[in-house]
Structures are given as structure tokens and as C-alpha cells.
Amino acid sequence: MKPSKKPVTQFYGDDSYMNLRLSDHRVRRKMNRMWKDRVLYLMLAPTIIYFCVFRVWPIINMRLAFCNYRARGPWEFAGLKYFRMIFQSSAFSDIMRNTIILSFMKYVLLFPAFVILALLLNELRVKKFRQYVQVVSYLPHFLSWVVIAGIWKAFLAPGADSGVNTLLGFFGAEPVDLMTDKGAIRWVLFFCEAWRTTGWDSIIFYTAIINISSDIYEAAAIDGANRWQIVKKIILPALLIPMTTVFILNLGFFMSAGFDQVYNFTNASVNSVIDILDTYINRVGIESAQYSIGTAVSLIKGIFGLILVLITHVTSKKLTGEGVW
Fold first, then answer.
1. Is 63 in the same domain as 179?
2. Residue 76: inside a domain, yes or no?
3. Are 241 and 306 in a shared domain?
4. For the residues 193-219, what does the mean pLDDT come to?
5. 34, 121, 227, 287: most buried, per Cβ within 10 A?
6. DSSP codes joined into one string, 198-240
7. What is the band of 33 on the pLDDT scale with cuts at 50, 70, 90?
8. Is 18 in the same domain as 86?
């Protein structure tokens, strides 16, 4: 006589068996959904590959900061040797100061301009003119820093026929050479960054403004609120969450003061005041093939950015109740 086959529930229990069935159903449903959207996932694949190769894989090889690099054979553990070399270097303190100053100008001083432009766009009542302003302000974002540097260098050239000196000559002022002026070059980088990014980075705030319900505006108008009161009591509170999130995420890049921009604008006359960590990494780690030192500086950048994000997130949570997560 054949032994009777025991039901599955006798081994797993009724609840466990049902949970397994539900889990299996969820997995199949997700796989079917992914297969249905396979074209979208295929379009997403290059981005995923890019981040895996250039973002995730370098994190794994950050161990090079603690090792002596060898093209062949295993890397020899060196401990904190390269970190001591970095902090004992006389040039590192100047480079760190330059990085902090330029990053503060770009990520803190420039931040209100994004919100102000979004507010001004919302106040424009002529639709075609607003669209024109949007297009003009967005376009510089799509230019490479090589092109932008060429435009600004031509405008700020020391010759009397350059754009800035022509304007100064019109008002009777003497010609200037801002590209070799140590006191002015940081502000040149600041206004150049503003010209390129203000329009594009204002999109998220303008989107948040236009998503505010029209019923709220109508209720405010009935209560007799003027435009400033509407901005203060309705629009700015609605922008609090995106402003907090964007600002905190921007601080994660605080130690990246903009390699492309600085590399294209630098010259021997002003290098001492705009030489930043990224250009130092390029010069020492890549051009001089000191890969361990370059990796150590990159690790310092990453840790510093992570600490800034965590501190800002915790502070924002306590003060406003909003943060990144």
C-alpha cells in the first residue's frame, strides 16, 4: 500500500503556506510588470551601468587610499601613510580653503537666486514672455564648460575691445583684466555659475509653485491678501520641503567646487586662489600618477560631504520637521 502524501500545510503550517503563496504571487506580478515595461528598463540600463562603473566600483577601490599602488601584483597595505602626507603638506590647507570658499559661494550664496527666479517667473502674467524668459535662462545649462569659458574669456579679455572694457570705456573708466585679478576671479566664477545654473535649478521650485491649488489663491484673494502676503503665507511654505531637500543634497557636493569650471578658467596668475581639491586630485593623482594620494583626497571629500549632509539633515529635522528622509 502506497504511503499517503502529506499536504503542504502539514509541513509549513496554514499561515506560513499562505505567506509563501502571497510572496510568490507578488514576485510574479513584479516580474510581469517589469517584462511589460522592458523597453523602459532597457532605456534605463545605460544609466545603471554608468553609475555602477563610475560610482559604485570606485567606492570598492577606495581601499587604494590605504595601500601602495602597484600596476602588477597585490597592493601593499600602507595604513594612514598617505593621509599623513596630505595633512602635512603646506599646499593642502590653501587648497582646502579655496574649496570651502568657492563651494560656499556656489552652494550657499547662490541658492536663494533659484527660489527668487521661480517667484519672479510665477509673477509674470504674459505667458509668451514668461516662456521666453524660461528658455533664455535654461539654455546656458546645456553648454559645456569649454564653450562657456570661451564666451566669458572673450567678454572679460584685457583688450580695450572686449565686452567688459567697452562698457567701462563708455562710462569713462579704465580697462581691467579680471581674468588675472586674484581679488576678482572668484566672483567671476560665481557669476558665471549663476548665469549657467540659475534658470535650470529654478525648475523644481517653479514646478512646486504651479502645483499649488488655485482654490488656495482664491481663498486668499477673498480674504483680501495682497501679492506679498500670498508669497509669504502660501508660496514660501509650499517651497519649504523642496528647498530643504535640494539644499541638503547640494551640501553633499560641497567639497566638489566644480572641476570643469575651475580647470577651464584657471591660469598661472590666479591658480593660487582657485586651486581646489578636484584640480589637486587631477594634478597629483592622474598627471603625476600618485593614485594612492589622489584616492585619499577623494575619500576625504566623500566623508566630509557625508558629514555635512547628516548634520544639515538632523538640524533641519529639529528646526522645521523636514529633512531628506
1. no
2. no
3. yes
4. 92
5. 121
6. HHHHTHHHHHHHHTS-HHHHHHHHHTT--HHHHIIIIIHHHHH
7. confident
8. no
Q: Is residue 304 within 8 Å of residue 292, measured between CB atoms? A: no
- What are the residues whose beta carbons fall under 8 Å from the beta carbon of 307, sequence distance 6 or more? none
Q: What is the pLDDT of residues 40-90, one digit of tens each?
A: 889 999 999 998 888 888 888 888 899 998 888 888 899 899 999 998 888
Do 47 and 175 reside in the same domain of the chain? no
Cα–Cα separations (whole angstroms), residue 282 to 24, 150, 293: 50, 22, 11
Does residue 227 surpass a pLDDT of 50? yes
Helix then strand then coil, % of the chain, to nearest 5: 75, 0, 25
The model carries a pTM of 0.80
The overall longest dimension of the chain from CA atoms, in Å, is 114
Instruction: Say yes or no to pLDDT of 11 above 70.
Output: no
**pLDDT above 70: percentage of residues in the chain:** 92
Residue 322 near residue 240 (C-beta atoms within 8 A): yes
**Same domain for 181 and 63:** no
Q: pLDDT-based confidence at 117, cuts 50/70/90?
A: very high
Q: Left if phi > 0, otherwise alpha if psi is -120 to 50, otherwise beta: which for 57?
A: alpha
Check whether residue 158 and residue 23 sit in a common domain: no
Contact by Cβ (8 Å): 140, 148: yes
More confident residue, 324 or 192: 192
3, part of any domain: no
How many domains are there within the chain?
Answer: 2
Full domain range(s) for residue 63: 8-67
pLDDT in tens, 247-269: 888 888 888 888 999 999 999 99
Query: 43 and 133 in one domain?
Result: no
Q: Is there a contact between 28 and 34 (Cβ–Cβ < 8 Å)?
A: no
CATH number at residue 139: 1.10.3720.10
Return the number of other C-beta atoms located less than 10 Å from residue 253's C-beta.
16
> For residue 74, is it within any domain?
no
35 plus 140 within the same structural domain: no
Whether the CA torsion 212, 218, 219, 223 is positive or negative: it is: positive
Q: Do the beta carbons of residue 290 and residue 67 sit within 8 Å? A: no
Retrieve residue 198's grid coordinates: 540659475
